[in-house]
Amino acid sequence: MADQTPPPALAFLLSRRSCPAKTLGLPVPERDALLQLLTAAARCPDHGKLEPWRFIVLENKALSRLGELTAARGMSLGRDEAEITKGRKQFDDSHLAVAVIEVQKDSEKIPPIEQTYSAGGVCLSLLNAALAAGWGANWLSGWPAHDRGFVEVGLGLNGHERVAGFIHIGTPSATPPERPRPDLEQITTWVTE
Ligand SMILES: Cc1cc2nc3c(=O)[nH]c(=O)nc-3n(C[C@H](O)[C@H](O)[C@H](O)COP(=O)(O)O)c2cc1C
């Protein structure tokens, strides 16, 4: 029988898993190491080479500021205490996060949805690059990611930009639990003719 052992890159993809953000602590990657992860993330399928994304690296003080802003925005929006606490927790707990920003570009050829897909691809590539490098990482959004007041004041986004994801990166304090994975029989159709 042929050797079924997957090559290392495929073995990684077959076993990769996120680490809950609350388990991510210090150390976090230094700038050079993070730049390499961002380089890997930006090597992403992108129809028309529009580069419809950019990165905002959030270090400690910025994360604290965003935690405070989440509380202020939550209160002005009339959100309850539990929602505010949950919304700010990702910033309060984190030591390093990258906001992946979808930047919609004008194009006659490439539909906006394809630019959105590409931004999602960048998020997964960054997550996987961090995991492959031995860090723990988690892709989060939460209500602040979708609140225009928060993203415009807190991250300086323009009208044609939105948050595709906050990728938190750090050293995991615990092995992440496995979670059920899709049943391939249920989601795969083989078309033979
Ligand atoms: C766009 C997007 C946003 C997410 N936002 C959150 C979130 O705000 N809170 C949360 O607990 N999980 C969120 N998740 C799920 C986490 O990333 C979760 O840890 C992940 O699905 C685990 O998958 P993995 O182990 O295959 O990497 C989000 C996932 C995606 C794709």
UniProtKB/TrEMBL annotation:
Cofactor note: Binds 1 FMN per subunit.
Required co-factors: FMN
This enzyme's EC code(s): 1.-.-.-
InterPro entries: NAD(P)H_nitroreductase, Nitroreductase, Nitroreductase-like, YdjA-like
Keyword Nucleus: no
An annotated Gene Ontology molecular function: oxidoreductase activity
Keywords: Flavoprotein, FMN, NAD, NADP, Oxidoreductase
Annotated protein name in UniProt: Putative NAD(P)H nitroreductase
Top-level division of the source organism's lineage: Bacteria
Gene: ydjA
Domain Nitroreductase: residue ranges: 15-170
Similarity remark: Belongs to the nitroreductase family.
Residues at which FMN binds: R16, R17, S18, R43, H47, W139, L140, S141
